[in-house]
Write a structure and sequence with these properties.
Blueprint: E1 17-19, E2 22-24, E3 29-33, H1 40-53, E4 57-59, H2 77-90, E5 94-97, H3 104-107, E6 113-116, H4 124-131, E7 137-140, H5 147-158, E8 165-169, H6 187-194, E9 199-201, H7 203-207, H8 210-223, E10 227-231, H9 249-269
Parallel strand pairs: 3-4, 3-10, 4-5, 5-6, 6-7, 7-8, 8-9, 9-10
Antiparallel strand pairs: 1-2
Helix pairs in contact: 1-2, 1-9, 4-5, 8-9
Bound molecules: phosphoenolpyruvate (PEP) and manganese (II) ion.
């Protein structure tokens, strides 16, 4: 891809994004937590549960880009303060979404990673702003976007002087309706061919089905993903957002007990994928 000046693979060696001591791009980094921050109790309980299961970072949305304007939109500042408390209690770095360029500078004071959601992947004003934020960025793939369009969006962030971009494949729209989206796992080796940036997989939004999250997490690790981002809720039946796809802490613990050994096995027995 000739137009990529900074994101292209041949520009430099693999990028490792250091997030308060957690290195994305080395081993397997697992980010877990609720779709949205709903209350202090829900968030803190979930944070402790995912930490106990071995997660490296905590996720939770304070600003939710919902399909319907009448759906729960997130707690905003109050949600960010709750996330800050979860970090204080568990030590887990926080990944949270920002949806408005005007909010980037103050949301960056709370977040360890700023997430750009699928619906905003091509929001160029937002990309430029997070490029200036001084925070690592998790750039989700647009649900209708090609790899080239996605990498050009990463280029927007890099060209503002922010080298810390992590890509996240979260499924694309196809004719299939059994799953919420179609997980494009070939994006992992393809992205590694095209760019030096790390790539993680979101098996939650890509499948939208509890029973498929574990198998696709395993497949993601086998495909060489640098990490996973998974939705976990202390009480999924009470979740205000994406309730049907939220894992219980027990289910998440089960998946962790499979993906960690698989990652170690692959690291020790397969030649490094470079
Ligand atoms: C999310 O991670 O909570 C989210 C809204 O994801 P996506 O942008 O991939 O739909
Ligand atoms: Mn969600």
């Amino acid at each position: 891809m000739k137009n990529l000046k900074l994101a292209s693979r041949d520009q430099k060696k693999r990028t490792i994004v250091n997030v308060s001591g957690v290195e994305v791009g080395r081993g397997l980094v697992v980010i877990a937590g609720p779709c949205s921050v709903e209350s202090e109790k829900q968030t803190i309980e979930t944070a402790h549960a995912v930490k106990a299961a071995g997660a490296d970072m905590m996720r939770g949305g304070a600003f939710k880009p919902r399909t319907s304007p009448y759906a729960f939109q997130g707690l905003g500042l109050e949600g960010l303060k709750i996330l800050e408390k979860a970090r204080e209690e568990t030590g887990l770095p926080i990944v949270t979404e920002v949806i408005d360029p005007r909010d980037v500078s103050w949301v960056a004071e709370f977040a360890d990673i700023l997430q750009i959601g699928t619906r905003n992947m091509q929001n160029y004003a937002l990309l430029k702003e997070v490029g200036k934020s001084g925070r690592p960025v998790l750039l989700k793939r647009g649900m209708y976007s090609t790899l080239s369009e996605w990498l050009n969006c990463a280029e927007y962030i890099l060209s503002e002087g922010n080298p810390d971009v992590i890509l996240c494949e979260r499924g694309i729209r196809t004719f299939e309706s059994y799953t919420r989206n179609t997980l494009d796992l070939s994006a992992v080796p393809a992205i590694k061919e095209l760019t030096h940036l790390p790539i993680i997989i979101d098996p939650t939004h890509s499948t939208g089905r509890l029973s498929l999250i574990g198998p696709m997490s395993i497949a993601s690790v086998a495909a060489g993903a640098d990490g996973l981002i998974i939705e976990v809720h202390n009480k999924p039946e009470e979740a205000l957002c994406d309730a049907a796809q939220a894992l219980t802490p027990e289910m998440f613990t089960g998946i962790m007990s499979q993906v960690r050994p698989l990652q170690s096995f692959l690291e020790n027995s397969m030649p490094a994928m470079s």
